[in-house]
Write a structure and sequence with these properties.
- By secondary structure, the chain is α+β, with helices and mostly antiparallel strands.
- It folds into three domains: 54 residues, OB fold (Dihydrolipoamide Acetyltransferase, E2P); 76 residues, OB fold (Dihydrolipoamide Acetyltransferase, E2P) (Beta Barrel), CATH 2.40.50; 79 residues, Ribosomal Protein S8, Chain: A, domain 1 (2-Layer Sandwich), CATH 3.30.1370.10.
- The protein contains four helices and 17 strands.
- The strands form four sheets. The protein has a five-stranded mixed barrel with strand order 9-10-11-13-12. A four-stranded antiparallel sheet has the order 1-3-6-5, with no helix packed on it.
- β10 and β11 form a beta hairpin.
- α2 packs antiparallel against α3 and α3 packs antiparallel against α4.
- The radius of gyration is 20 Å and the shape is flat.
- The protein starts with a strand and ends with a helix.
Length: 228
């Protein structure tokens, strides 16, 4: 017989067990692993009959197939790499998805991607919240060079990018910086001029802080024109 382990309106954290047994069903932001239900985000529990769901308190990232993400290499193994993509479990990058070139068996994989490297990758499979597979075989997917990584709320990424990339293009053109924004809320910025790089960072932070206020595009344009 199933057992609920939390109370209505209780605040829970990612990975916390919410119920055991098959009597309860996972709702929004709740996942099942065997006969247990777990939370994917910080949130408030809502119970509706047998349904267990979360009302998120933060805009944390939920991996989805097809997302482009920025991740940091945290483990180098025999068959691939593990990356931190801002999710509670690490993503897996296998040798076959790491390069279009042939990689010999037992090769030193740290020569391709090493600890601490930042990589732009695409999520190609989400078997469960614990198992996320990524690839760097595709346009724009690569190891990132020198630059700075900043973190933004994943829920604000669409506003930072803008319609058809209009907002991020405006920042790139104004500052001369190279910018890549992952849907997991990590952004890479590199500028030849350190001052321009700082302006790009501040522009992105301004978008995040003011995304709910009308007239955002005009304010960012004015901010970039002032250069401060």
């Amino acid at each position: 017989m199933g057992k609920i382990l939390v109370n209505e309106n209780e605040i829970v954290v990612p990975g916390q067990e919410l119920a055991e047994g098959m009597d309860y069903l996972p709702g929004d932001d709740v996942y099942r692993e065997k006969d247990h239900l777990y939370a994917t985000k910080i949130g408030i529990i809502k119970l509706s009959g047998r349904l267990v769901k979360l009302l998120p308190l933060t805009g944390s990232y939920m991996p989805r197939r097809g997302d482009n993400v920025i991740g940091k290499v945290v483990n180098v193994g025999l068959g691939g790499w593990r990356l931190d993509i801002g999710w509670m479990f690490e993503a897996n990058l296998s040798v076959k998805d790491a390069s279009s070139e042939f990689i010999e068996r037992n090769a030193d994989l740290s020569k391709f991607f090493n600890y601490g490297d930042w990589i732009v990758a695409e999520i190609i499979n989400v078997t469960s919240p614990r198992y996320v597979d990524i690839t760097v075989k595709g346009p724009g997917l690569r190891k990132l060079g020198p630059g700075r990584i900043i973190h933004v709320s994943p829920s604000k990424v669409p506003r930072i990018i803008g319609k058809q990339g209009s907002m991020i293009t405006m920042i790139k053109d104004s500052t001369g910086c190279k910018i890549t924004v992952g849907q997991n809320g990590m952004a890479w910025i590199h500028g030849e001029d350190p001052e321009k790089e700082i302006i790009a960072v501040k522009a992105i932070e301004k978008i995040q802080a003011e995304s709910h206020i009308p007239g955002l595009t005009d304010r960012i344009k004015e901010f970039l024109e002032r250069g401060q």
